[in-house]
Design goal:
The protein is 37% helix and 18% strand. With 418 residues, it is α+β, with helices and mostly antiparallel strands. α10 (204-219) packs across α12 (236-248), α11 crosses α12 (236-248) and α14 (364-378) packs across α15 (393-401).
Amino acid sequence: MSDTLSAAEARRVALAAQGFSRRRPAARIAPRHLHGTMGRLGVLQIDSVNVFSRSHYMPFFSRLGAYDPALLDRVFVNRTTHYVEYLAHEATFIPVEDWPLWRFRMDDFRARRDANPSSWPDPRTLDWVRAELAERGALRSAQLRDDAPRERGSWWDWDEAKQALEYLWRVGEVSISGRRGFERLYALAEHVIPASVRDRVVPRDAAIRELVERAARSSGIATAADLADYYRIRDRAAVARAVHELADEGRLRAVAVRGWEQGGRAVTAWMHSDAVLPRRIQAAALLTPFDPVVWFRQRALRVFELDYRIEIYVPAHRRRYGYYSLPVLVRDRIVARVDLRADRASSTLQVQSAWWEPQGRRGDEAAIAAEIMRAAEWQGLQNISISGWGDAAEAIARPLTSSECGALRHVHPREVSG
C-alpha cells in the first residue's frame, strides 16, 4: 500500500476498520454478531436520549441491519459476564477483561480527590455507601435514597450520596452490575469483576500503549489527535510515545493523505498494520451522533467534510438541523443528516428535517430513503412522515412516496406524507 493515499482511499480504510466493508448478515442476528462488531469498535458509548433509539443500540443496526434490541439488553445491559460500564470515552460498555487497562484513569480520579478533598464526597458518606453495597448487594441509587440515614445527623445529604456512588465508580471501587430500564445498578467491584481480572496489574504506560494500538486498529487510519480522542486520553505525551513505539515495531505506519492538511500544513496520519484498503464500500447506514465514525468533530470534518455538532442543548429556535440529527452514510461518504423521531402513539417514524452534506450526490436519496424505511421497520413503526424542513427533504420524500419503492415495503405497507 502506498505511503500516500487519496482522501477517498483514507475514508475506505477508516470505514473498513469499523466494519462497513462487510455485508450485513443474511441470517438472524445472534450474540456472535454483536460480539464481533464490538470487537471492531472496542467501546460502545451509552446515551439516554431516546427520541428515535438510544445511542448504544444504533451502531449494531448501522452495521448489521435490523435486530431485536432485547438481544443487546441480554448481552450488554443485563447482568453479564462479557461487558461492564466505565468511562472509556464517555460512559461506555467495555469488555470486562479490560477493567485493568483503566486503572490509570481510576488512579487519576483518586489523585484529584486527594489534591482537593473538599470538592469531593464526605468520607462518612463514602463509608456509608460502601457498607450498604457490601451488606445489600447491587442497588439502584433510588434504593439508597429511600433508605437514607436521615436520623444520623446533619452530615447526610442525598446529592452527596449520589456523588459518592459516581466517585466510587470512577475510582474502581464500585461497578455497574446491570440496569433496570435505564437506571443503573451499582455494586462493589468485587461482586461484579472476577478476581482474576481485578488483580491483574497493567502499568500506566503499558495501558495507554495498548489503548492507542486498539484505537488505531478500530480507526484504520488516524492522526495522533484521533487516537487520543478514541479513548479520551488526555496525556498527549504518553500517546505520542505509544505511537512512536508502535511505529518502531511496525504496528503503525506513517502515511500522508491528500486533503488532510491543517492550516496549510500536511497532517501525519498513522495506519495500523491490520488496516485494509477495500476497492469500494457498498454500505448505507444511519449513524448515531456517538458512533466512532463521527464522534470526534475534528475527524468527522477532516475525513467526511462533516461539520457536526449535536443540537440537543441548543434552544429550538436556534437549531439549524434539528434536535438529534443522524449522519447518513452512503458508500464511502457522509451524504446527509436526518432528524428522526419515533412517535410510538401513532406508530410513525417522523423525519423532522433532512439536509444534504457537501459529499452528497444526485441519486443518494434512494439509498437514504431505503435506510429510513429499514429504520421504521426495525423500530416496529408502520408509517413514515417527512416534513419540508431541510434542503434534502423533498428529494428524500420522492422515493418514499413513489411506487418504485414497493419492493422496499414488503413487510409493512406504509403511508408517507410529505
